[in-house]
Design a protein that fits this description.
three-stranded antiparallel sheet; 18% helix
Length: 109
């Protein structure tokens, strides 16, 4: 199968305009929650990127903790600074055949 060729269409930092108080993290937060999972979504029929951006900003207003950054205070305790730093939102266009995917091939390469 041919490789997909990816072209970056847009890249921007989305912010909600909502800030919140510092949220201190527990040991369980630090061991279980400090994870990042890259995600690729495929929309062969197209996607309204503007609508996705608007809905994501609306969601961030309800959950400002997802736009903050992990920091340490003077005592070394870690917390999330809910300062609306924002999230990076990238849109790419891919050309080439789509890889096999779906319920019949969930863990394919």
């Amino acid at each position: 199968m041919a490789k997909l060729k990816s072209t970056l269409i847009s890249s921007k930092r989305l912010q909600s305009g909502v800030k919140g108080p510092a949220q201190y993290l527990t040991g369980m937060d630090l061991f279980n929650g400090h994870v990042s999972i890259p995600m690729i979504l495929v929309y062969p029929q197209g996607l309204d990127v503007g609508e996705i951006e608007r809905s994501l900003v609306q969601t961030m207003r309800s959950y400002p903790v997802i736009t903050g950054r992990i920091k340490k205070d003077a005592q070394g305790d870690q917390y999330i600074d809910n300062n609306d730093t924002g999230i990076d939102f990238r849109v790419s266009r891919c050309s080439g055949a789509l890889p096999n995917y779906g319920a019949h091939n969930q863990f394919g390469k």
